[in-house]
Amino acid sequence: MQLMNPRQFSPSMPRRLPRGRLLGLLCGVLLAAVEPAGTLASLPSDIEQVITQSGIPRSRISVSVRDTSSGRELVDVASSTPRIPASNMKLLSTGAAISSYPLDHQFRTRLLLENGRIVIIGNGDPALADPDLLSDMRDGNGRTLNVEGLLDLWVKAIRKADVTQIDEVIVDDRIFDRDLLHADWPRNQIQRSYCPEVSGLNFHRNILELRPEPRPGHIALGESPSAPFMSIHNEMTPGKGKAKSNTVDPHRQPLSETITVRGTVVEPQISPVEITVHDPAMFTGRLLADRLAREGIKTGSVRRASKSEVFDQQHVLFDVVTPMQTVVKECNHESKNLYAEAILKHLGHSKTNQPGSWSNGSEALAEIVRERTGHQAKNLVIADGSGMSRRNRVSPELMTRWLATFADGSTTSRAFQASLPSPGSGTLERRFANRSLHGCDVVAKTGYINGVSALSGLVIAPGGQSYAFSVIGNDLKNIRRCKHLQESIVEVIAEDIGKKTQRVQVRP
Fold it and tell me: Which of 310, 325, 340 is at the close of a domain?
């Protein structure tokens, strides 16, 4: 996320060799030719062995391993079976974005001044005011930027335009439809930060951060950003007796603005407790109106742009731009669901020139998958972009076909691979500990929802040869056991491809 202010390689003659050395060389050539076949034969049996050792019923596991250079599927364990992929859906969403847009494609949010009105033009950017990104940015004085600092920059840009009164604050979220909450998502989890509403104008990951703190006689809520216009019921109580830690429990009903916060507070909350907000576009407009009022700028109503309204975009007071590559990396590396859904709807908007939706986004993504893999993908079901929906279906066979298209060394492939975590980082931070990867690199995406565990990615040998893999388990009783199986399979793949790169070399 960036802030922008517009006021700105010869063949040689063959030699005669001694007979003994010639025979030795011929043997070496024979070894080099035979060894790969033996390696290929052992990989499926080695993976069958680790599946048996896992104790997971075979009916619940599907595995595909594919040589990305030849396109040949090396391992097929029910690989064509459609499975719920969970967050492995993000591999499709982000890959489609990387391959469909120029590498310098940006999301751009504009603040306009038009006839005494302030208009916020949303571009569906999921990273706008994301606290994780703001913390790596600095304001004009070198201080870490936070959400209040960003809002202050907006207010200063308005004041610099000699504005003392605003008739309206208009939020333009029309790049996406206004179906904010996917029908398949669990309604008892909509208040969780991983299940936010999705808007054409997103802000602060569409969450409030709560940092309650005990005060004499009451508990101070400490929400960020401060939103005095919201209905927040503070029902927290001071911790008593044996209570040693805070238990902050916020609730919000689907499509409701009212938030109720319960629990006990013993000490000031350091790590924020997050809860989603309703109607992110209007939430953003109200935040700006509130900050303008605090600075003495009289502000009228806050409303949404009408269907046919057109705005003069000549007078841009402030821009916030986020490169698509940043969005893709945050989506894969940190598995942010909002980012995946914004990408999906962005794809839908680009294809149809209509407001992006889960419907046209899913159709656009399916078409990109079919075109890129050269596969009909008849069993592919795309319900959302992040994998929260249990209606999504992807076979590991299709997943490795897809991943193999991002292993050709192109700039697109390099950008896609760079967006994925490796062991010790992102969602793989605690994976592959004490595992030997035999000098290979691994980039992969995890996936989890109740009863589902997935791991798909690439194993890349030091010489650049790579295998794509996908291991998806459904109807699981023990997620940890499946994670162990996934890591064992990747370890076996790394050993196999590592041996290939260490074959006997023919030397004259």
Answer: 325
